[in-house]
Amino acid sequence: MKTRVLIVDDELSMREFLSILLEREGYEVLTAADAATALSRLASNRIDLVISDVQMPGLSGLELLASIKQQTPDTAVLLVTAFSTAEQAVEAMKLGAYDYLAKPFKVEEIKVLVRNALERSELKRENRLLREQAAESEMFVGIVGRSPRMRELFGLLRKVMETASTVLITGESGTGKELAARAIHNGSNRKHKPFVAVNCGAIPENLIESELFGHVRGAFTGAVGEHPGFFEQANGGTLFLDEIGELPLAMQTRLLRVLQEREVRRVGGNCTKKVDVRVVAASNRDLAELVRGGDFREDLYYRINVFQVVMPPLRERIEDIPLLVEHLLRKHVAAGNGTISSEALKALMNYGFPGNVRELENIIERALVLNPERITVDTLPAVLRGGERRYESAGGVQIPDDGIELEAVLEHLEKQYLQQALAKAGGSKTRAAELLRMSFRSFRYKLSKYGLGPPDGAADAVRN
Ligand SMILES: Nc1ncnc2c1ncn2[C@@H]1O[C@H](COP(=O)(O)OP(=O)(O)OP(=O)(O)O)[C@@H](O)[C@H]1O
Ligand SMILES: [Mg+2]
Q1: Which is deepest, 56, 114, 139, 361, by most CB within 10 Å?
Q2: Where is the Sigma-54 factor interaction domain positioned along the sequence (predicted)?
């Protein structure tokens, strides 16, 4: 690629003189007789250096310089004038000119200046690229990470964004599946259209069909008006089907048809409507295993699994923990001056994080309640402090001499966990179920089993 120089001067003889000189030096030369033409040349060509006169009809060279620094800051600018004043020179340098040269100038002088200006702009461009790459490797559309696993993920997400394919995001709870789904939408050409997130596990089974595909008036008792389903609401945009493994088989069949035919029929209706929706599905259950067990349609599995994005668990990218902590501190400490002690960071890096980034975020938030500015070991949960592993009780279990009724003991324990999860999740059943790594459906079932609440979850089903 040849280096390209743009010469801006209202005087034809000057343009010709510089053109010949610079072409002989091996540069490709473009010319413009005024600033406006120069700007349009700059908009449609990559220009490495602009050599501009200062006094010109219309916009002056200084004004041209100012717009160039705004639009293409990497382009070097050299100003040339016949009426140079010290003030103008200072002004030009302040605006970011590479140099300011008085006419008449010597041929050697301009050659050297051009060479140096180009070297500098090349350096600047390289530095900027390096800076951008560095920033990107740590944070890609809101997803923090710089471990090899995360870099690989960013590369894959970038590819996925360019396509309209269905995507399946898998990974343990709290690994950022929803974050990735939103990133895919925001990085695609559908970003100005709706992103509709639906938790398939949270919609009561008898309402799933009408929620997804809509219903007409009077389709069933209670269907008082027309209702567009999530597919129609997401038209032109992205539909995020979270916990897709929770969809009942009959709904899987319906979904498959919609994906194949790209049209929906509202419940009770008899006409179909074309929809243009990109589906991103997510599951923290192993769908292939559900397929083997007959709980997930194989053909649907292949249909949604065009691209699979696997979110790595946090324990496989421990090196990202300091960066994540920094990010979460910025997120949760309003003044932006939150810190962490090195022992606390060490304790975090030694922990296994079964709940992944969500658990890390909860731990940070909790610690900040105890001390709003600094995270220290004593503000961390006991499991991290002692270094003991979770899921292993310290003393082991005790069976009294006359034995125990295991079933009842376990039920009692289970009930306590359910209640505590609900309290911790501020009453959100979806969140509570997540805390216990249970599907929404089984959580709801257990709640009603212990009389802890009526089965209902529609309010939790849709986010955004
Ligand atoms: N790489 C990351 N960088 C920054 N924040 C993250 C990252 N991964 C997850 N988070 C944060 O952790 C929380 C959980 O993420 P998210 O809801 O996307 O997880 P998930 O995989 O959908 O979990 P689940 O399977 O339980 O629904 C969110 O607050 C999210 O912003
Ligand atoms: Mg999720």
Answers
A1: 114
A2: 143-369
Element (H, E) at 100: strand 99-102
Q: From the CA of 320, give the closest atom in ligand 1.
A: 1
Residue 352 near residue 390, CB atoms below 8 Å: yes
- CA of residue 313 to ligand 2 center, whole Å: 14
Q: Which ligand 1 atom sits closest to the C-alpha of 360?
A: 12
Residue among 79, 83, 71 nearest 117 (CA): 79
pLDDT digits (tens, 9 = 90+) for 125-175: 777 766 665 555 566 778 999 888 998 999 999 999 989 899 999 998 899
Instruction: Please state which of the ranges 81-90, 170-179, 238-247 shows the lowest mean pLDDT.
Output: 81-90
pLDDT for res 392: 36
Q: Do domains 4-133 and 141-312 have the same CATH topology?
A: yes
Q: How many residues comprise the chain? A: 464
Q: 406-463, superfamily in CATH?
A: Homeodomain-like (1.10.10.60)
Q: Which residues line ligand 1 (CB under 6 A)?
A: 143-145, 171, 173-179, 284, 311, 327, 357-358, 361, 434
Q: Determine the pLDDT at residue 135.
A: 56
Per-residue pLDDT tens digits for 315-337: 999 999 999 998 899 889 877 77
Q: What is the CATH number of domain 4-133?
A: 3.40.50.2300
Ligand 1: which of 144, 170, 178 to mutate, most ligand atoms within 8 Å of CB?
Answer: 178
Is residue 167 within 8 Å of residue 184, measured between CB atoms? yes
CB 345 within 8 A of CB 322: yes
Phi, psi of 175 (to 5 degrees): -90, -5
